[in-house]
Amino acid sequence: MEYVDVAIIGGGPAGMAAAVAAKENGAERVMIIERDRGLGGILQQCIHPGFGLHYFKEELTGPEYAERFIRKVEELGIETKLDTMVLDIDKSRKIHYVNPEEGVGYLEAGAVVLAMGCRERTRGAINIPGTRPAGIFTAGTAQRLINMDGLIPGRKLVILGSGDVGLIMARRFTLEGAEVKAVVEIMPYPNGLARNIMQCLIDFDIPLLLSHTVTRIFGKERVEGVEISQVDENFNPIPGTEEYIECDTLLLSVGLIPENELSEKAGVELDPVTNGPVVDEFRQTSLEGIFAAGNVLQVHDLVDDVSKEAEIAGRSASLYAKGELRAREILMKAIPGENVRYVVPQVLRRGDGHVEFFMRVTKPMERVRVVIRNSDVSFKRLFARPGEMMKVKVRENHFKKLKGKKEIIFDIVEDDD
């Protein structure tokens, strides 16, 4: 059986950054296993700018961002298995895969990094009633059709959901000469980045209908129109508020699901809120020697954050493969408190040094503080929005104040100062 020090499942931004970090931290043999025909993941179809502002300190398109990491992978001599589907991973880190050249293959790894990314929720996941005509696409599928295949799937669109991919596609369709009738969002606030609301909707005069949803789809062979309705505070359609919009295409931007089928089969503990693995500050999962990073762990807004998180996982995997990192007992749990939906990492095994925590707020707030409960530690922020990840760095001196405690609880409260 072939042996590698660190195996990375997935060749997108998380997988490449983890591989580079593992190699740069002393792992001799690092291999990326990717089911697509090339590295880059979702970045291949993201031809718009806005990537790399934090990581590279310059604005890049998705393919440009991917190219930077592809060059690093090649320069460092990191091995790749492309067009290869991983079928199974077991607790001893044996990987079962299949590809056209080798057929069925097996691989043993000193450490594994899960970097499979996420997939889009479909119409079936949200149960929209009506007929089943052609013309219903997820936003990411439409993005691939336009940007990589040169095909435009519709001319008159309604977009359900205000996630970032949906917002970007509203602009993309408009630039291609299509008419975007409206972006319909069930929540009372938009779910995308503020910059995308401004640059993709407001700048192009595209209506955003909050507290609305699609309640019916019309058309037999092709979408002919949709019915939208206002929703109440429990997200139930309000009778009498129905409105018909003529269109030939419905795009769905209704959330992303981390691709954790492999993780679940291996026995990795999953967080019911993030739908990703429960990890410690080293991004190690509940299974020793298996690490996770990127959208398979939690859905990110910025690829820059994905790369930084993946570097932690890659570095930790390298240390584990060399025998320099071993799992300890859980010292402390990170708990989401008031106005906090989730916190990553969820557990701490050392509880010292500097640990950056990622979290999401449950509702939009202005002028807030992220407070560590039962301590005098807090962090000021100008705003908090559900569509934008919040990050706080808890430093060594902060952990000293929490010595002996089994939980670190984060609350997000309005700032009275």
TrEMBL record:
GO molecular function terms listed in the Swiss-Prot or TrEMBL record: oxidoreductase activity
Membrane-spanning parts: none
Cell division among keywords: no
InterPro entries linked: FAD/NAD-bd_sf, FAD/NAD-binding_dom, Metab_Enz_Cyan_OpOx_G3PDH
Domain FAD/NAD(P)-binding: 5-300
Record key words, sorted: Oxidoreductase
Matches recorded under PANTHER family: ANAEROBIC GLYCEROL-3-PHOSPHATE DEHYDROGENASE SUBUNIT B (PTHR42949:SF3)
Protein name: FAD-dependent oxidoreductase
Higher taxonomy: Bacteria, Bacteria division WOR-3
